[in-house]
Design brief:
It is a single chain. This protein is an alpha+beta fold and 108 residues long. It has one domain. 34% of the residues lie in helices and 23% in strands. It has 3 helices and 4 strands. A 4-stranded antiparallel β-sheet has the order 1-2-3-4, with helices on both faces. The relative contact order is 0.16.
């Protein structure tokens, strides 16, 4: 899954064109597989709040598994709460540790 595909998923969510709002800042979005359509492509879970950062937290091939379970959605909501509340200093620390990788917007 390319950085450009992730950027496009974020742009779609920002414009209100998302596949599923799971609540608590958690969104599920389809990403097309190279050479294929979106229906057989990937699903990504993003933690998003308008005007803030967006975190890609999980991705899977649609053909590899069924939908997310209720326990997974609860865990993603908990993670979103922590990630979206992170201070600039906290973000710099996790970026420096290698736990989180930044995918800047085009031109940044």
């Amino acid at each position: 899954m390319s950085d450009d595909a992730l950027r496009e998923a974020v742009q779609q969510i920002e414009s209100g064109n998302f596949d599923a709002d799971l609540g608590g800042g958690v969104f599920k979005q389809r990403i097309a597989r190279a050479g294929g359509g979106q229906s057989g492509g990937y699903r990504v879970v993003l933690c998003f709040r308008a005007g803030m950062r967006t975190f890609f937290v999980y991705g899977y091939a649609k053909s590899a598994r069924a939908n997310l379970g209720a326990d997974e959605v609860r865990a993603f909501k908990k993670l979103a709460k922590a990630l979206l509340a992170m201070t600039e200093e906290g973000l710099e620390a996790v970026l420096g540790s290698g736990v989180v990788e930044e995918v800047p917007r085009k031109g940044e």
